[in-house]
Design a protein that fits this description.
This protein has about 350 residues and is of the alpha+beta class. It is built from twelve helices and nine strands. About 40% of the residues lie in helices and about 10% in strands. The protein is extended and about 85 Å long.
């Protein structure tokens, strides 16, 4: 640990600024470059340890917006984090990490205080100290911000935005409160500039640009494929390279979906298939695994080639047969609860046979 945390040759953190050209009057974001600073190794060590701490118990999962979307944006987060509140939060959550390190709580908290209170940096040959908050650029800032973000403090302020049917988050637009649809979102400063084809970079990186953009189009919304082609052409990519690369990627995306679904039924096959089709078209809140897969990946099911795997008039025997066929699938859409009744011995046996 001594060799990991010791520092023999170091420099004071340096400050530089990045303009926020998408905002009014073009304010600057101050960044403190902490790499190679005296406490950088210690800050990284504390960051790795505090990652094991519980951030918050108040986590909503699987919810949806009933009427309108709400976006909460923090005002200048890192520079408004209360140091005292941060130290108190880490102290309370010591039990989450006490078994991960071989130092005492007092020694660990001493290191935390040393890093959080050392907010010195240099700029244009002058030396400064940040009066409040943590440094933008310190390895410890992101994790401590998560620890105190749900606390009440005068310095923690939010911008609240409402929208009836869509909201912009990072580089996507989330549409419709009742069925989530994703689309590309570009800030007003978006120029459409990517790595130009005539640059000296290797061809593999240029193919990677095409593959990455194609993946995003099909992950969020396929209609953006035309926009991707137009953008790549403006960056001098040959049309043949675009289609050869994207078509190869399309085959992977489509062929890689070998998912299947097994379900027993005592009803006529055509009636059960019609129910599945209608369920997909309704897109209601009580979605089956088939509807969820169709909604998320936009994959069409081959309804004309549905296979009857077994025939049995008794329910219990049909359920046993269903479990066996589910376990024999390579990529199953069935829920884990569909095979919970099968003993682990048989599960392993079926895996070996498969």
């Amino acid at each position: 640990m001594y060799k990991k945390l010791s520092c023999s040759e170091s420099i004071l953190p340096r400050a530089y600024a990045l303009p926020k050209i998408h905002k009014l009057n073009c304010p600057f974001r101050l960044i403190i470059l902490s790499i190679d600073s005296p406490l950088y190794a210690l800050a990284t060590f504390i960051h790795d340890i505090t990652q094991g701490m519980e951030v918050t118990r108040y986590l909503l999962k699987g919810t949806r917006f009933e009427i309108e979307h709400v976006l909460l944006d923090v005002v200048s987060l890192f520079t408004n984090i209360p140091i005292d509140l941060t130290i108190e939060s880490i102290d309370k959550k010591w039990n989450f990490v006490r078994d991960k390190i071989n130092i005492s709580k007092d020694e660990f908290m001493l290191g935390v205080r040393l890093v959080l209170n050392s907010t010195y940096f240099s700029f244009d040959g002058q030396f400064y100290k940040q009066n409040f908050g943590t440094l933008v650029g310190s390895p410890l800032s992101p994790i401590v911000s998560d620890l105190v973000l749900n606390s009440l403090h005068d310095r923690l302020k939010f911008i609240l935005e409402f929208d009836d049917d869509k909201i912009n988050f990072l580089d996507i637009t989330i549409i419709n409160p009742y069925r989530t649809i994703y689309n590309f979102y570009h800030k007003p400063t978006y120029s459409g500039r990517y790595l130009n084809f005539f640059s000296s970079h290797p061809l593999s990186q240029k193919r990677g640009i095409i593959i990455g953009m194609t993946d995003r189009a099909f992950k969020y919304h396929p209609k953006n494929f035309e926009h991707i082609i137009s953008t790549l052409l403006k960056n001098d990519y040959p049309i043949d390279l675009i289609f050869n690369t994207s078509n190869a990627r399309l085959k992977i995306l489509i062929k890689s979906c070998d998912a299947s679904y097994v379900r027993q039924t005592r009803r006529k096959l055509k009636i059960r298939l019609a129910e599945h089709r209608n369920h997909i078209n309704r897109n209601n809140n009580n979605q089956s695994v088939i509807t969820e897969h169709r909604t998320e990946f936009e994959h069409d099911f081959d309804w004309e080639n549905v296979a009857i795997l077994d025939e049995e008039c008794f329910l219990n025997k049909r359920l046993i047969s269903q479990c066996i066929h589910i376990l024999m699938q390579q990529n199953s859409l069935n829920l884990r609860s569909d095979t919970e009744g099968v003993h682990q011995t048989y599960v392993q046996l079926l895996k070996d046979i498969k």
